[in-house]
Every structure is written in C-alpha cells, then in structure tokens.
Design a protein that fits this description.
7-stranded mixed beta sheet, binds pyridoxal-5'-phosphate, alpha/beta, Aspartate Aminotransferase, domain 2, 3-stranded antiparallel beta sheet, 11 helices
C-alpha cells in the first residue's frame, strides 16, 4: 500500500534538520537561560532583517503578537468617551485575528473578501469606514499578501493604522517588500505548521516604529519598564529560548523552503491544467464549468504558499472524502466564516452578509503542501483527483 500523504508534515522538516536543531536545543539546555536572553534577541535581529523591518519583538504566539501590536497602536481608545472603537478585518480568517481585536478593546468590523484572492477587498472598504475606525487588519491569507496598495492608501487618507496579520505569510512579498514591513506593524505566528514553525508556540511583531516595539516589549512582560517596575498591567506573552534557538536554525533555510513551496504549487497548477481538471481565473473573472479553480497569484506579489488552496465549485466535501479514502489528507481554511460563528452571533449578521467569504467557505480545499513533499506525491494527488472527478 502506498503511504498516506499528510496535508502538512512538520516532523519531516525536523528529520532534515535534526543535527542542527538538536545542537541548538542542547546549547540552550546547557545555558540555563530558558526565557528571553541571547537566543530570543538573536532571533529578533535575524527575523527583522529577513522582513526588512527595523524592530522585531518576539511573543508567546501569533495571537499575542496581534493583541500587543493592536494595543500598541492604541486601537482600543476612542476620541469619544463611551464609544467602542472599530477595527476592520476579513471574515475569512482564523478567529485569533478578531479575538485580538476584541481583546485590544475594539469591535471587529468585517469587510468581504475579493472573490479571486480571498483577501480583504479594498473596493469594499469605503462602506465600512466610520469615524470610529481605528485600524485595518488585512490578513495575508494562505501565504499571499492582501491587496496592500489600496489598503494602505485608504488607511493613510483616513489617518488610521494598518496592522498586518502575516501569521500565514513569512517571506511573502508585495511589490518587492516583505509581509510585516508594509503597515505600522506585522504580526507573525510560529505555530508548528507555519512556513516558519516552532516545536511549540511562538510569535513576532515587526515594525519600523520604536514606540510600537517598546510598548509590545512591555506588554509581553507584565508591563515591566524595568525589573519589578510595572508601568502598566501587561501579560505573560514571552517567547522561550528553546523555541527561539530552533526558529533560528529554521529561519536560515526559510527562503529556500518557500522557493520549494512555490515550485510544488507551480507543478500542481501545470498538472491539473494538463489533465483538464482545473481552470485559472481570467480577464473575465471566474471561469465556468471547470471542476477545480486554481489559486490566484496577484501580479505584484510573491506568494509564500503556506497553503495550496483550490476551489471545488461543486461536491467539495465528496472530493475531500474520496481523497482521504485514497490516503490523501486535505484541509478546509475555513469552513465557517467568522461572522457566522456562534461567538459572533451578537453581531446579528446572517448568511448573505458577506457572500464571497461564504462561497469560499463552501468551496475551498487545501491540498497537501510542505517543502519535503516530492514531485511524485504532487502527481499522485493530481491522479487521485482525476480518478475522483471522473476524467479518466
Ligand atoms: C491568520 C492567522 N492569524 C492568527 C493566528 C494565530 O496564531 P497563533 O496560533 O500562533 O496564536 C493564526 C494561526 O494560528 C493565523 O493563521
């Protein structure tokens, strides 16, 4: 029997880097410095350089990074007493994005996604901007930056901050600039399955603004401005040294690993088109009739392919089940848009509020993709799809 193909395989990455990672872990264990210290500072310097950011501040996870960056950008304070400030984001994301907005003291406000890239649609921003809007949090979904040109432009004209949710987009570029260096701050997750993943939890805030970096540093460490002097109440949101040391090893190979992700994505696209199973979005938008639609890469960007997510306009769940029967795992990112989650029932938003995000939730299917995946495995997934979709 052929071995199963997981959707993502963090253990395969460890196997390839075992000597370096084991040495880094041994070094930290022997040092006795387990929280903060030189490994964390080293990672902060190296990650800032990777993103072309002036500052990088490590946090306990990506949700901490978002919460602290939003607090540092003062999104929770309103000019009008008693009025709850608002932060705009996409409904097609992981709930951490909106948890952080609420926890920073603001109310999440959704704007539908662009039907092709599935990132926040800047054309729909005007309808959502109010006098209470304090920030926009574009989500760089699946490894591709949101349409940052018009988003940054609208934000600047309205005097509001842009905090990038770059948790899925380590190494993605927009017009030659890295995710995390585009807005007031960028927020990253090092959850084990991410393009840069820890062997546990981790996160990072990148920024060009010293005031934001300083406040994030304080918030992650119980509001301490110096030892046992607490300028404010903060959080325990620090990165540990073991994770930092492991991440430093993995960061060295990140650009090459992203390159491999892009090559695998290109192979998927070529095979699926050759087999007549898929179509690309064209000048006229969504093509009709194809069983699968390929992910859209925006022309001015470089996609980091955290996920290879196709759309299955009909029978997505049947295709998913049939792939699993053939030993091929897939994912759905995400099956329920945030505005329809029980946690946000209080917003009173019903089906039909954000039709593009809702349609995506019914159609998206993430195929296996990780740098250790072989070309043959990509071909096996494509052949399985051909069998399932009845085209040979
Ligand atoms: C888009 C997005 N935002 C935020 C997060 C939160 O990151 P973490 O799980 O590290 O808290 C994640 C990942 O889990 C994510 O994918």
């Amino acid at each position: 029997m052929t071995p199963p193909i997981p959707v993502i395989d963090p253990a395969a990455e460890y196997s390839g880097l075992k000597p370096e990672i084991d040495a880094a872990v041994g070094r930290v264990l022997a040092s006795g410095r387990y929280i903060g210290g030189p490994e964390v500072e080293g990672l902060e310097r190296e990650f800032a350089a990777f993103c072309g950011a002036t500052h990088a501040v490590a946090t306990g996870n990506g949700t901490d990074a978002l919460r602290f960056a939003l607090m540092a950008a003062a999104v929770g304070s309103s000019a009008v007493p008693g009025e709850r400030p608002e932060v705009i984001t996409s409904p097609l994301t992981f709930i951490a994005t909106t948890e952080a907005i609420s926890q920073a003291g603001a109310r999440p406000v959704f704007v539908d996604v662009d039907p092709e890239s599935l990132t926040l649609d800047p054309a729909k921003l005007d309808g959502a901007l109010t006098a209470r809007t304090r920030a926009i949090v574009p989500v760089h979904l699946y490894g591709q930056t949101a349409d940052m040109g018009p988003i940054l432009d609208r934000a600047r004209r309205n005097g509001i901050a842009v905090i990038e949710d770059a948790c899925q987009a380590h190494g993605a570029l927009h017009a030659g600039r890295a995710a995390g260096s585009l807005g007031e701050a960028g927020c990253f997750s090092f959850y084990p399955t991410k393009n840069l993943g820890a062997c546990g939890e981790g996160g990072m805030v990148t920024t060009a603004r010293a005031d934001i970096a300083d406040r994030v540093r304080r918030l992650r460490d119980h509001g301490q401005s110096e030892k046992y002097v607490h300028a404010e109440e903060g959080y325990n949101g620090r990165l540990d040294a073991l994770q930092a040391a492991i991440l430093r090893v993995k960061l060295r190979g990140l650009a090459a690993r992203n390159q491999r992700r892009r090559a695998l994505a290109a192979r998927y696209g070529e095979r699926l088109l050759e087999m007549g199973l898929a179509a690309r979005y064209g000048e006229e938008g969504r093509p009709a009739g194809a069983p699968l639609l390929l992910p859209v890469e925006r022309p001015r960007g470089t996609h980091a392919y955290h996920l290879y997510t196709v759309r299955v306009p009909a029978v997505r769940d049947r295709v998913r089940a049939a792939l699993l029967e053939r030993g091929i795992e897939t994912g759905i990112h995400y099956p329920i848009p945030l505005h329809l989650q029980p946690a946000y029932a209080w917003m009173g938003l019903r089906e039909g509020s954000f039709p593009e995000a809702e349609r995506a939730a019914r159609e998206v299917l993430s195929l296996p993709l990780y740098p250790e995946m072989t070309d043959d495995q990509v071909d096996r997934v494509c052949s399985a799809l051909r069998g399932i979709l009845g085209r040979g």
